[in-house]
């Protein structure tokens, strides 16, 4: 019977956050720090011929101007992936601190370092950059064409990578008689993470080393990247990660930490700060890959698949960042989601002159899910089946095993999730009732499902280290490299540690929230929905070690055999009769201050995780579509997740709400736009980029199916990213149900609806007819 | 920290006029929600500012001796919405400015600033046009009043004379305009808050005492052209007619003869035309209902 | 240009204070840099996210687009001012914790200050009205759901009424 896990306790960082005293990077910047402002290229593709810095340098307060002609010629990678000892598996090193070859509108070409903000801004405006313009390309498929503008010499036709997957015999299978072909092109947009705290950092030298305090998800990885970028031993670099105001994958990348670190070395080690403005966050950090899918499904009239073909074109933008990993994951979702004996899948990652795409909550799955779940609804419609029944028939069955990841679908999860979602939304009754809507305002119900991996094994290393210290008051201080980024990881760790050690309360665990690579045991950070899963292994293991040491010392004091004792409620007890022998505090004091055998009881260990786990779920959405106004109102929405056992149900629910909100924006409104003529971003601010507001949501409902994950030390598996995966296609399918119009791109905003409704004849503006398209 | 060259704070209207004359290139700042944003963008970087925000005499809504509504130019949107006189006599204006941006923007944003920056998307502007508001400008030679339609010269440019040291001091809605008149405003946006209008439509009607005839109908749009605009063809189609379904159709289709929206990345011309017609129809029907009438 | 400074006297969190500030400063700059009130966050600096929201004479303002010199004579409240003399949280702060309305915590101070204005009006609002009153804040973590719950729960508690189903 668990005492601490599975309980909706309040956050360990709740008080300080509610009191407004939590310190983020900007709250810790020394007041004498110099301001670094970046000159961003105003070209989508060009070579910098020269930069005239004279006027900028003459501005009072400007300390130094550095340009792309000053930086070391040391290319480095930025992706927040674990380092690989296999050179073939290392991330593409295609970045410089500042760039002579401008590859997107907003690329970094120079910096002005100044004593105050205004001087730095003026300095940037005073720079004159002379460019040699190059042709540019924004579309992934166009970038693959012969003769398209080339971004990186090493990658002909701009193809960063192509991978494929073949199963059975697609060509033969489609010859079967009576097959129904359902084909579609599904387009997903470039979107941005929009954490409310922009990325920023400050850096200074201390004892000849470089210290960077950064708003990042991955301090230990950042240390390695900064070392690579500066060409310095990694031990020369110290990264400190304070509380951060959200990340969602954008901060799972080296953003401006390398540049900031370099700038301090150029001004004699004085403290320098880089604070991204919101406009820079949108363009010069990372974005989510826009992926275009081409799906051809061959169905038998009974609603089973004979064969499927999937092509994925992933728009990487200007630099490799996380690169092909994202579309590879997207492509990999298809054969497992709806297993089909004959499949052909191909994925391309293609450089274009757009901002670099990196990790964003869902890592390819929101895109894949939009395409696959749209196609699935189209398939159900083509054979006249209810879309939920169609899914029940074709979805990954119980017992399904994936040889590569080693994952198994142990439970009848999908049906359990769909049952819950359908009950909440009143699926059958409403679909029947809404079918009668024929007026200008129509209602509809849609659903979508997803699966998701937990952590990155076996593609990359999965490791977690942990340190526990027994304090003199019997509490435990715990440290690990898996970071708190808002999701509540520290609270879950406190609960798991209290459980594993046997403490009275999760409040008796002091989780050191701030990671400092000089102090914190190496951990890889927050990504891949891995935190509670991977940290769970090292927490379990380290807690066992700590207990062993405690009981060993207790044996000296109590003269009870180690195996006859245990720790419960913060006391050492005798197992046989439960008698309390001494409190942990007494033990700690005794051990620490023993004049002949003094011991500060600590434990530290690393666990290499060689498992992965499927996480599952679905979204059901109810919409009302005002056809003449081209507006969709989301009336009701529910997400159902099987992420194994919940460590903290209230935090889990909150996590799901956030993902649902992101999915609603993805489905209906969010999209970063670029001017076709210049490649310039058009809406890189929070007014023109349509993040959903407080008034754009119905009540968000989160439900769970708790099938304890057998491979997991606490029964948990992925929940961080999964809530962002199935919302958009559920909304798309609800619009289809309401109007009969199948829309194959998101966001489904009024512009798209206007075009689609016009095409479908649902709206007719006679005055437009006869005019050219 | 804003990149401004200097800041002059006006303590009174007279002081503001003097500052204007003394610093003719300086930009006036009221609530600042547009000016400061532009300054940060670099558009107005290094400019001199004359702040009139501190002139409390320019705040508040009153009735003058002729019972015209007089709205001080620095009255914030939220105060307009909450004002009893507005609610009683020109409620739609309060409703319209209650759709500006967000609660915080409605607290800082002023109706004077909203009209003086001359943008077509201002949520107050279509309603002020539809209610034939009068703009009061005060300069070194006293007060000048002109219809709001004439105040807007072109996109981003209003008739505010720097050589006169003018500032806008009030917006008036004449009694003849608001009497027995009821209106409705629809803001079309891509989301429900923190939004700039894709199109704004404001309609108001005065019905005959027996509610069977539309005595007077007025309609104005924001974002249907470079400046906010009235639709004379549509108004003519409605004036003196019975409120029927057919009339609503005729009326709404007639707006196409008057409006001239453009293609931009925010929305296509065709889309704006499409929703303009639908919004005109819905606004008219709603206005008729608010006036106590019904479609016959 | 020659730098221009001005003495600004105001009341911050119940205390009369004065400082000479650069006229170019926003109220965010003044509160964060001159008074170290770091609950005032910067998320966009153009009034679109609400992270820097403070109460000025009882009304919510984005301090990023409010000139520091305008604070002259005003009563300003930030989240720091809500804590009791012995470090007690106010009911609305506690509700944010209890309802899991906090995740990364970056939008939290701004949201709570808008909630204070709502709650101090003493009025009862519908869910839709509350959504509108809180719509000047963006949050990427919570989907707003638990924030609504926290504000609503505290509103009814203060009104002494049960929460309607």
Describe the SSE topology:
The complex is a heterotrimer of chains A (773), B (296) and C (165).
Chain A: H1 14-19, E1 34-40, E2 46-52, H2 54-57, E3 62-67, E4 101-102, E5 108-114, H3 117-126, E6 128-133, H4 140-143, E7 159-167, H5 170-173, E8 180-187, E9 200-206, E10 209-214, H6 219-230, E11 237-241, H7 257-266, E12 272-275, H8 278-284, E13 290-299, E14 305-317, H9 324-337, E15 343-351, H10 365-382, H11 387-394, H12 413-425, H13 427-434, E16 441-453, E17 463-470, E18 476-480, H14 489-501, E19 509-511, E20 515-516, H15 531-558, E21 565-568, E22 571-574, E23 580-583, H16 584-592, E24 602-608, E25 614-626, E26 631-642, H17 649-668, E27 700-704, H18 727-739, H19 750-760
Parallel strand pairs in A: 1-12, 10-11, 14-15, 18-19, 26-27
Antiparallel strand pairs in A: 1-5, 2-4, 2-6, 3-5, 7-15, 8-13, 9-10, 9-12, 11-20, 13-14, 16-25, 17-18, 17-24, 21-22, 22-23, 25-26
Chain B: E1 6-9, H1 13-22, E2 27-29, H2 35-41, E3 48-51, E4 61-63, E5 69-72, H3 77-82, H4 84-89, H5 91-97, H6 103-108, H7 111-116, H8 123-130, E6 134-139, E7 142-147, H9 148-151, E8 152-154, E9 157-158, E10 167-173, H10 175-178, E11 182-188, E12 199-207, E13 214-222, E14 229-230, H11 232-238, H12 245-254, H13 269-290
Parallel strand pairs in B: 1-3, 2-3
Antiparallel strand pairs in B: 4-5, 5-10, 6-7, 6-10, 8-9, 11-12, 12-13, 13-14
Helix pairs in contact in B: 5-8, 11-12, 12-13
Chain C: E1 5-12, E2 15-22, H1 27-34, E3 53-56, E4 59-62, E5 75-77, H2 91-98, H3 108-120, H4 127-133, H5 145-159
Parallel strand pairs in C: 1-5
Antiparallel strand pairs in C: 1-2, 3-4, 3-5
């Amino acid at each position: 019977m668990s005492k601490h896990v599975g309980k909706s306790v309040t956050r360990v960082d709740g008080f300080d956050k509610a009191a407004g005293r939590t310190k983020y990077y900007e709250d810790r910047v020394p007041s004498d720090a110099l301001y670094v402002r970046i000159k961003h290229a105003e070209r989508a593709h060009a070579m910098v011929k020269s930069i005239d810095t004279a006027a900028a340098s003459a501005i009072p307060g400007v300390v130094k101007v550095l340009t792309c002609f000053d930086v070391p010629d040391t290319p480095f990678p930025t992706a927040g992936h674990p380092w690989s000892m296999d050179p073939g598996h290392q991330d593409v090193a295609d970045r410089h601190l500042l760039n002579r070859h401008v590859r997107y509108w907003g690329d970094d070409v120079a910096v002005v370092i100044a004593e105050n903000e205004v001087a730095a801004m003026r300095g940037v405006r005073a720079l004159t950059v002379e460019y040699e313009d190059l042709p540019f390309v924004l579309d992934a498929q166009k970038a693959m064409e012969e003769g398209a503008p080339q971004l990186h010499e090493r990658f002909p036709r701009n193809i960063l990578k192509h991978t494929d997957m073949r199963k059975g015999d697609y060509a033969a299978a489609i010859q079967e008689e009576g097959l129904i072909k359902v084909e579609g092109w599904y387009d997903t947009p470039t979107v941005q993470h929009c954490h409310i705290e922009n990325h920023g950092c400050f850096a200074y030298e201390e004892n000849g080393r470089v210290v960077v305090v950064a708003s990042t998800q991955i301090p230990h990885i950042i240390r390695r990247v900064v070392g690579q970028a500066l060409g310095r031993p990694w031990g020369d670099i110290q990264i400190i990660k304070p509380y951060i105001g959200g990340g969602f994958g954008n901060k799972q990348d080296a953003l401006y930490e390398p540049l900031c670190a370099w700038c301090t070395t150029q001004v004699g080690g004085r403290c320098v700060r880089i604070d991204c403005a919101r406009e820079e966050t949108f363009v010069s950090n990372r974005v989510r890959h826009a992926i275009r899918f081409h799906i051809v499904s061959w169905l038998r009239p009974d609603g089973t698949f004979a064969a499927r073909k999937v092509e994925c074109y992933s728009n990487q933008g200007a630099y490799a960042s996380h690169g092909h990993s994202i579309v590879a994951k997207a492509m990999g979702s298809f054969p497992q989601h709806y297993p089909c004996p004959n499949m052909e899948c191909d994925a391309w990652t293609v450089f274009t002159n757009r901002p670099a795409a990196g990790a964003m909550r869902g890592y390819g799955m929101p895109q894949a899910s939009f395409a696959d779940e749209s196609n699935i609804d189209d398939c159900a419609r083509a054979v006249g089946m209810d879309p939920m029944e169609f899914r029940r028939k074709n979805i990954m069955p119980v017992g399904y095993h994936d040889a590569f990841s080693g994952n198994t679908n142990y439970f009848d999860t999908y049906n359990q999730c769909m049952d819950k979602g359908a009950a909440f939304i009143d699926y059958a009754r409403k679909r029947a009732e809404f079918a009668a809507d024929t007026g200008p305002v129509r209602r509809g119900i849609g659903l979508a499902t997803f699966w998701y991996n937990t952590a990155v094994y076996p593609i990359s290393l999965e490791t977690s280290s942990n340190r526990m210290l027994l304090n003199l008051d019997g509490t435990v201080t715990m440290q690990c490299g898996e970071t708190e980024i808002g999701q509540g990881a520290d609270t879950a760790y406190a609960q798991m540690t209290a459980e594993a050690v046997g403490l009275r309360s999760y409040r008796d665990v002091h989780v050191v929230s701030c990671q400092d690579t000089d102090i914190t045991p190496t951990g890889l950070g927050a990504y891949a929905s891995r935190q509670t899963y991977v940290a769970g292994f090292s927490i379990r293991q380290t807690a066992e070690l700590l207990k062993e040491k405690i009981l060993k010392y207790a044996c000296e004091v109590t003269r009870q055999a180690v195996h006859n004792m245990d720790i419960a409620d913060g006391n050492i007890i005798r197992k046989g009769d439960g008698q309390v022998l001494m409190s942990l505090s007494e033990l700690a004091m005794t051990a620490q201050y023993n004049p002949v055998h003094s011991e500060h009881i600590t434990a530290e260990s690393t666990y290499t995780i060689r498992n992965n786990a499927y996480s599952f779920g679905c979204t059901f959405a109810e919409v009302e579509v005002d056809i003449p106004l081209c507006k969709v109102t989301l009336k009701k929405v529910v997400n159902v997740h099987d992420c194994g056992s919940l460590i903290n149900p209230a935090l889990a629910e909150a996590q799901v709400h956030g993902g649902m909100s992101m999915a609603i924006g993805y489905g209906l409104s969010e999209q970063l736009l670029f001017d076709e003529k210049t490649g310039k971003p058009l809406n890189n601010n929070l007014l023109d980029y349509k993040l959903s507001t407080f008034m754009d949501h119905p009540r968000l409902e989160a439900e769970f199916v708790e099938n304890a994950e057998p491979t997991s030390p606490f029964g948990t598996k992925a929940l961080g990213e999964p809530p962002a995966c199935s919302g958009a296609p559920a909304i798309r399918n609800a619009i289809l149900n309401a109007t009969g119009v199948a829309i194959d791109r998101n966001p489904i905003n009024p512009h798209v609806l206007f075009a689609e409704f016009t095409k479908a004849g649902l709206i007719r503006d006679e005055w437009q007819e006869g005019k050219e398209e | 920290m804003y990149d401004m060259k200097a800041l002059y704070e006006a303590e009174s209207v007279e002081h503001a006029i003097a500052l204007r004359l003394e610093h003719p290139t300086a930009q006036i700042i009221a609530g600042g929600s547009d000016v400061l944003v532009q300054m940060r963008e670099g558009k107005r970087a290094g400019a001199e500012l004359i702040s009139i925000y501190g002139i409390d005499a320019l705040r508040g809504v009153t009735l003058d001796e002729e019972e015209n509504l007089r709205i001080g130019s620095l009255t914030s949107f939220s105060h307009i919405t909450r004002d009893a006189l507005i609610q009683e006599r020109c409620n739609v204006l309060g409703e319209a400015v209650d759709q500006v941006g967000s609660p915080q923007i409605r607290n800082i944003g002023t109706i004077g600033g909203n009209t003086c920056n001359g943008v077509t998307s201002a949520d107050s502007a279509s309603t002020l046009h539809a209610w034939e508001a009068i703009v009061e400008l005060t300069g070194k030679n006293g007060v000048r009043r002109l219809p709001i339609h004439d105040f807007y010269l072109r996109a981003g440019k209003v008739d505010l004379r720097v050589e006169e040291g003018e500032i806008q001091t009030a917006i008036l809605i004449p009694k003849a305009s608001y009497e027995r008149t009821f209106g409705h405003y629809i803001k079309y946006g891509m989301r429900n808050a923190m939004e700039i209008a894709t199109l704004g439509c404001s309609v108001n009607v005065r019905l005959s005492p027996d509610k069977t005839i539309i005595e007077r109908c007025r309609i104005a749009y924001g974002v249907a052209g470079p400046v906010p605009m009235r639709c004379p063809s549509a108004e003519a189609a409605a004036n003196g007619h019975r409120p029927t379904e057919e009339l609503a159709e005729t009326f709404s289709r007639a707006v196409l003869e008057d409006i001239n929206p453009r293609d931009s990345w925010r929305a296509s011309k065709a889309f704006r035309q499409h929703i303009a017609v639908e919004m005109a129809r819905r606004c008219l029907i709603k206005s008729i209902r608010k006036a106590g009438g019904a479609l016959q | 240009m020659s730098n221009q400074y001005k003495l600004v006297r105001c009341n911050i969190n119940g205390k009369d204070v004065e400082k000479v500030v650069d006229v170019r400063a926003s109220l965010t700059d003044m509160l964060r840099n001159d008074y170290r009130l770091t609950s005032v966050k910067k998320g966009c600096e153009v009034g679109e996210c609400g992270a820097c929201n403070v109460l000025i004479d009882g009304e919510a303002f984005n301090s990023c687009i409010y000139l520091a010199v305008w604070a002259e004579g005003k009563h300003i409240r930030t989240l720091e001012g809500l804590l009791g003399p012995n470090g007690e949280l106010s009911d609305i702060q506690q509700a944010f914790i209890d309802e899991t309305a906090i995740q990364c915590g970056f939008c939290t101070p701004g949201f709570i200050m808008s909630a204070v204005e709502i709650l101090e009006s003493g009025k009862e609002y519908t869910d839709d009205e509350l959504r509108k009153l809180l719509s000047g804040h963006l949050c990427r973590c919570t989907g707003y759901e638990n924030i609504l719950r926290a504000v609503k729960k505290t509103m009814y508690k203060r009104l002494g009424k049960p929460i309607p189903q």
